[in-house]
Write a structure and sequence with these properties.
about 140 residues, alpha/beta, single chain, four-stranded mixed β-sheet
Length: about 140
């Protein structure tokens, strides 16, 4: 979340399963005077409020069973609220799950400092994506 705050997003939210870790994160963001962020306590597999988001960032956050549910929720959100959804996924261990249903397309894999690669996906095909310059 801290890295995402470097970019001009209106808000940066994170989902954390642990109440204790969420409390620590909130304290840290208060110390940083980061006012555009919120730490939501909850299970990402059960999160259903993706309609207000256009960008989602993952850093190998959960096992495949949870990622399957998160991607399904993102796809449902797109069907209910059509818009471009962009997934920025560092160390994309669940790449197959992201592309399995055919809604998301891999646009680019960018280098990161650890050699894992940052995979960029969009649900807008062809030249319609704001990410077309990455292709």
């Amino acid at each position: 979340m801290r890295i995402m705050l470097r970019f001009p997003f209106i808000k940066v939210h994170g989902i954390e399963l642990s109440i204790q870790i969420a409390a620590i994160a909130r304290q840290n963001f208060q110390k940083l005077r980061a006012h555009r962020c919120e730490v939501i306590v909850g299970d990402a597999a059960a999160f259903k409020s993706f309609d207000e988001y256009n960008f989602v960032y993952f850093y190998n956050p959960f096992p495949a069973s949870v990622m399957t549910k998160v991607i399904s929720s993102l796809q449902g959100s797109f069907l209910d609220n059509p818009r471009e959804l962009v997934i920025v996924y560092n160390n994309a261990t669940c790449h197959e799950i992201v592309i399995r249903e055919g809604i998301f397309e891999l646009v680019a894999v960018l280098p990161d400092e650890w050699g894992n690669g940052i995979s960029i996906y969009t649900n807008r095909q062809g030249g319609l994506s704001r990410l077309r310059m990455l292709k």
